[in-house]
Amino acid sequence: MRKVYYITKKNTNRLIKEVEYLELLEICFVEDSMLKQKIKEVECLLFTSKNAVFALEHFMPKEWQNLPCYVIGEGSKKALESLGGKVEFVASAAYGDLFGRELVEILRGKKVLFVRAKKVASNLVEILKKGGIVVLESILYETKILNISEDKKQSFKEDSIFFFSAPSSLRAFLQNYAWRESYLALCIGKSTAKVAEELLGKNAKISLSPKINIKDSLEFAKQLARENNNE
């Protein structure tokens, strides 16, 4: 069976069997001195990552929980619910641009706070503003790449499958390892797949996951590994 590797952040729960976890990223919280004032001004909160949920709770425990929350993905939804947040809406798919178009239909004329990372891959804010939504932003975390020392670097077999859940995970891999033509890059989301094409080249084997969350995508990767093993 081909090996499946998941490029992820430090201290990720290793819940999926038959998957190798490569911890090449670190989530660092970033303070926003205007956060409390922004919370007072808006009618709801937007999240595209569970890391943003945890960052908000870190800086303002419980003070935000009465505001309705609009999110991408089951991960963000579960994180909010575990902290007592009010989940008003979950995007129909894990794509920032689609999320934006859906929100325009239900939040036009409202003032919202987008709790986000330092870098985002979608055009969400631009879409919301063009759709008549007043958007405040609060950058509460950033994703940093870890540099692995040569003596701790792994070696990978030919035809290995690497799962990338965000553009940052691609950059983290390439900062530490070289890409080989036999590898397969399995990506969540069109933004990640687009970055994969730019960084890995047109001849690279790149596949867009048909699943919209990490757990199901990893199960899909394992299925790919078994199918190729039986050919």
TrEMBL record:
PANTHER family: UROPORPHYRINOGEN-III SYNTHASE, CHLOROPLASTIC. It comes from the Bacteria. Residues 25-205 form the Tetrapyrrole biosynthesis uroporphyrinogen III synthase domain. Catalyzes cyclization of the linear tetrapyrrole, hydroxymethylbilane, to the macrocyclic uroporphyrinogen III. GO terms for molecular function: uroporphyrinogen-III synthase activity. Pathway: Porphyrin-containing compound metabolism; protoporphyrin-IX biosynthesis; coproporphyrinogen-III from 5-aminolevulinate: step 3/4. The keyword Lyase applies. InterPro entries: 4pyrrol_syn_uPrphyn_synt_sf (IPR036108), 4pyrrol_synth_uPrphyn_synth (IPR003754), UROS/Hem4 (IPR039793). Keywords: Lyase, Porphyrin biosynthesis. It holds the Pfam family HEM4. Belongs to the uroporphyrinogen-III synthase family. It catalyses: hydroxymethylbilane = uroporphyrinogen III + H2O. It is an enzyme of class 4 (lyase). GO terms for biological process: protoporphyrinogen IX biosynthetic process; uroporphyrinogen III biosynthetic process. This is Uroporphyrinogen-III synthase. Its EC number is 4.2.1.75.
